[in-house]
Amino acid sequence: MVVSVRSVQDVAIVTIENPxxxxxxxxxxxxxxxxxxxxxxxxxxxxxxxxxxxxxxIAGADIREFNTPPKEPHLPDLVIALEGGxxxxxxxxxxxxxxxxxxxxxxCDYRIAINSAKLGLPEVNLGLIPGAxxxxxxxxxxxAEPALDIMISGKPVSADRAKNLGLIDATCDDDLQNxxxxxxxxxxxxxxxxxxxxxxxxxxxxALDKKLTAGAAKARGQNSPVAxxxxxxxxxxxxxxxxxxxxxxxxxxxxxxPQSLALRHIFFAERATSKISAIKGVPAxxxxxxxxxxxxxxxAGIAAACLLAGFDVVMIxxxxxxxxQGMSRTKATLANSLKRGLITQAxxxxxxxxxxGSISYIALADADLVIEAVFEDMxxxxxxxDALDQxxxxxAIFATNTSYLDIDEIAQSTINPTRVIGLHFFSPAHxxxxxxxxxxxxxNPTAIATGVALGKRLGKITxxxxxxxxxxxxxxxxxxxxxxxxxxxxxxLPADVDAAMRDFGFPMGIFEMQDLAGLxxxxxMRKRRAATRDPQERYVDIADTLCxxxxxxRKTGSGWYQYENGKATIDPTVTDLILQTSARNGITRASMTxxxxxxxxxxxxxxxxxxxxxxxxxxxADDIDVVMVNGYGFPxxxxxxxxxxxxx
Length: 648
Ligand code: T1G
Fold this sequence. Notes:
Elements: E1 3-8, E2 11-16, H1 26-41, E3 47-52, H2 75-83, E4 89-93, E5 96-98, H3 100-106, E6 110-114, E7 118-120, H4 134-142, H5 144-153, E8 157-158, H6 159-165, E9 170-172, H7 176-187, H8 205-217, H9 223-237, H10 240-255, H11 258-272, E10 289-293, H12 297-308, E11 312-316, H13 320-339, H14 345-353, E12 355-358, E13 369-372, H15 378-391, E14 397-400, H16 407-412, E15 420-425, E16 434-438, H17 445-457, E17 461-465, H18 473-490, H19 494-504, H20 510-517, H21 519-529, H22 542-548, E18 561-564, E19 567-570, H23 572-584, H24 594-614, H25 621-631, H26 641-646
Parallel strand pairs: 2-3, 3-4, 4-6, 5-7, 6-9, 10-11, 10-13, 11-12, 13-14, 14-15, 16-17
Antiparallel strand pairs: 1-2, 7-8, 15-16, 18-19
Helix pairs in contact: 1-2, 2-3, 4-5, 4-9, 5-8, 5-9, 8-9, 9-10, 11-25, 12-13, 13-14, 18-24, 19-24
The structure holds (2S,3S)-3-hydroxy-2-methylbutanoyl-COA (T1G).
The site of (2S,3S)-3-hydroxy-2-methylbutanoyl-COA has 25 residues, from strand 5, helix 3 and helix 11.
């Protein structure tokens, strides 16, 4: 029974139990409708509460049902049935009340929530808008501007914020069910509040219009934010009946929009990446204390991520000065989280207390897992792992954060290679959600399972990768960066390529990105590989020339572009260099359109992805899409380079 009803004196308690997140499946909709009818028909019942079992209130409509024809009762009709009738309903919220879950709560007369609950209408993240009356009821209940903020951001609000907005009637401590019953006993003999659809909270039209214009402008080619803005306009300009009909029409259109299909694909793909068959049923090793070797940008960021996730962290550096710098980098990140209100002062102080450092590996005697993040040099890394072998307990798991060095070789240099994995974080490590878990030939299932569990605790999207040059993401990026070098030698200019990538939906183009990251990093790698490069492979040396000129990008004031006060401008020197290179190589330059540029970039991504799949480096095409969307700026609403290729 996904929906059950029991009563406590004259209050009915409707409990939904549809794990894992009480999503509104057809059975839940039917069960709730039956429960409402049962309450209305029972003379002994004066009021009802709707509560959910397990960890959360309803987290939304069941997204898995979206690709099949909807079955009655449809959710909008259920909400109307809940708000009708003679007896009041109280929604009792814990965990997250999201999407259709909040819309069901808006169909109730009252809403109460425990202090830790969150409430939102995140449909825009799926390329949709609320489709069960949420755009109308939320706008009319709490006023158009905060309603627009909630729907266009897709971000939930806290119970406290919801109370201040008038979205809920009360908050309570953890004893939710008894608080809800007490609340119901207080209101059961009171006149029912007016239905939300008959209300219209005041709003400032001028301020709203500014937000609506800004919201649509920020959409950057995405359809659902624009639809949210339209739905809010409808909610204040149309009758409730017409606004509901208009919302339904917009929702149905968006449900078959390729952008929504792509976003729903990515939603499930992200949750599937860490379901690795090789570790099914294998318990992760317990991890309480994590050692971080290296306090540079990555080491300090990883230390912050681990502290914020509740681990004890010991940072190791080679001398006192480097240790002090590394620890202060991590503490600065924690201070910033405090300043931005992401953590409380009490939590901040606990994290600082959980953070220690040493220049001696002896401090790692109790570490359960150690993440190495030192300079990208194989000999230096091997020396670190040798020291770890001497200092750490026999069952400690070792991980390297290397971006491209051979982890099999590192593992083979240790006493017990089965406990060595790669954990490739992306900078800034405490913010970027992507984590590539690199499994060596020798890694044992416990080490892999522990890496997956760590990723979950850190709130990461953990994608398994085999060992190869660049793993999944950097390998694909190196391939399409080469293609972009070919394109500028063949006739395009960096600004053309960057504009094409931005128009496609990337936050920035590949040349802007190199100037931001620094051209010297890739230059050093190209020089290291020069001796082994395939002489038959086309090689464009324009970037090398820029580096020889000391043009490393933003940090030197010029790279592919010239920088004045942080603003990029096209530099004729670079244009001339490109033209001369084409001439020197006998290439007759030909201009190309943005579509032609993107077609070549996408083709390269897919070719490299196919090789990665053939070599067994990635487990699935979906995993590769997840990497490109979460680590390389591929527009989420296009689903990834491989999902796009499947489009009819
Ligand atoms: N439908 C189906 N399955 C869902 C689901 C949903 N709405 N939400 C989560 N799951 C599954 C998920 O795939 C995973 O499955 C498991 O639950 C745990 O999820 C009409 C149209 C609630 C904050 O967009 O944001 O209502 O991998 O790993 O990190 O207007 O899930 O275990 O097999 O993410 O603790 C609107 C989406 C829907 C919320 C929990 N609602 N979900 O996070 O667990 S559209 C949403 C989330 C809608 C109406 C519209 C998160 C979470 P498995 P998880 P988590």
